[in-house]
Write a structure and sequence with these properties.
By secondary structure, the protein is α/β, with parallel strands linked by helices. Helix content is about 30%, strand content about 25%. It has one domain: 3-Layer(aba) Sandwich (Rossmann fold), CATH 3.40.50.1580. It is globular, with a radius of gyration of 17 Å.
């Protein structure tokens, strides 16, 4: 389906009724095992996805399915504890729906995180990667269908989806904290099956450093409506074919738990420096 601008407005109006005069600046979309960031929001106001008109439910493991509004490091934030995925049966427009609603609520910046498979043979599981660019060549764009000019133009530029100035903020934050931060390209695969070894080789040849099943649709929508974007990947496991072992979602969640301290410190320092 194609949502109308009125439907986006209806969702935003419902949320405004719950959060009053609070106007968020930074939207945060948190991936597998990383939703704990929403638990440290100050003066939190929680709005479950299921209560918001036209919102979809998040069914992935480790995703709570709620918006948390409040402050982090002095920034007014809207934290998505859980995201929607195409593999759950949702269209790309539905996957990115929340980003547009948060834009209407006042967010001009998107911080997006994910857990993904590591393709770069020089890196290891547990590393953090600053996303410099993305590859999404499978299936349609979240912008497919009638354009909504209230959000952006029909053919938006995608040469700098991940804002260079925010990438520099992340570098500065990592250096201050002494956290090793890789930089690379994230490649989207629709899932839900993990990538095959042949697909991982293809991704490496295409220039990708990590492969995953999220992020790219939301970032395209954010770029379309003029938001600045900062993205991080937790390299939760080596991608298929690199190690002689099967992949599992439990491995992803365990890696996120092991890295949550340095990950949260990095994200909070970025908010402080924005």
């Amino acid at each position: 389906m194609n949502y109308t601008f009125a439907q986006y407005q209806e969702s935003a109006a419902y949320i405004r009724g719950k959060i009053g005069d609070f106007r968020p600046q930074v939207a945060m979309v948190l991936g597998s095992g990383l939703g704990f960031m929403g638990d440290v929001v100050e003066d939190p106001m929680v709005v479950p996805y299921r209560d918001i008109p036209h919102f979809k439910a998040s069914t992935a493991p480790g995703h709570k399915g709620q918006l948390v509004f409040g402050t982090l490091e002095g920034r007014r934030v809207a934290v998505m504890q859980g995201r929607m995925h195409h593999y759950e049966g949702y269209s790309y427009e539905e996957v990115s729906y929340a980003v547009r609603v948060l834009r209407l609520l006042g967010c001009d910046t998107l911080v997006v995180t994910n857990a993904a498979g590591c393709v770069n043979m020089d890196w290891k599981a547990g590393d953090l990667m600053l996303i410099t660019d993305q590859i999404k060549i499978f299936m349609e764009s979240p912008l497919r269908g009638e354009n909504l000019p209230e959000f952006g133009v029909r053919f938006p530029d995608a040469s700098k989806l991940y804002t260079p100035a925010l990438r520099q903020v992340a570098r500065n934050a990592a250096e201050k904290l002494g956290i090793a931060l890789k930089e690379g390209v994230y490649m989207y695969f629709p899932g839900p099956q993990y990538e095959t070894p042949a697909e991982v080789r293809f991704a490496r040849i295409a220039g990708a450093d990590a492969v995953g099943m999220s992020t790219a649709p939301e970032v395209i929508a954010a770029g379309h409506c003029g938001m600045q974007v900062l993205g991080f990947t937790l390299l939760s496991n080596m991608a298929a074919g690199i190690l002689d072992q099967p992949l599992s979602e439990q491995e992803v969640l365990e890696a996120a738990e092991a890295c949550k301290d340095k990950f949260s410190r990095l994200v909070l320092e970025c908010l402080k420096q924005m």
